[in-house]
Amino acid sequence: MAAATSATAATVPTGVAAAPVVQAADAVPFDVLVFSKTGGFRHGSIPAGIAAIQQLGEENDFTVTATEDAGAFTDDNLAQYEAVVWLSTTGDVLNDDQQAAFERYIQNGGGYAGIHAASDTEYDWPWYGGLVGAYFSAHPQNQDATVKVEDHVHESTAHLPSRWE
Description:
The chain is of the alpha/beta class. It has a domain at 27-140: Rossmann fold. Helix content is 29%, strand content 15%. The protein has helices at 2-11, 46-60, 75-78, 96-107, 126-132, and strands spanning 31-35, 63-67, 83-87, 111-115, 147-148, 163-164. The longest helix is centred in the first third of the chain and has 15 residues, at 46-60. It is globular.
């Protein structure tokens, strides 16, 4: 391995500048559509979820468009997004034409992320069931709990209190 590294280094002419590092400003725009229409139970966390994704966009140089309008699911509109996030959607939210447009979007390389209740959506659309991977069945009754954070070093938990209910 060291010999290969030395040989490679020897072939690079002296005084030649390295290729520039691509900065975020030079990157291709990345646009995300967040879809949160509900046709069943509506989770109160949807606004916080949208805000969190918008914050991620600001911190990681992607744009976020949030909508509950199923009319956004057309070929022309979806083509402007690199990914579509279904955020706590529930029930039957797209008509047949909108479903067909979303299928074409995914088949043409568009991205998809389903968050939380996205699996509680479109039970009568087998293609979507295959995309999301499973359908929601049920969960037990909510209950109170105390969460104890064991690791305050990892970046995903560093900001959390030691305990909360």
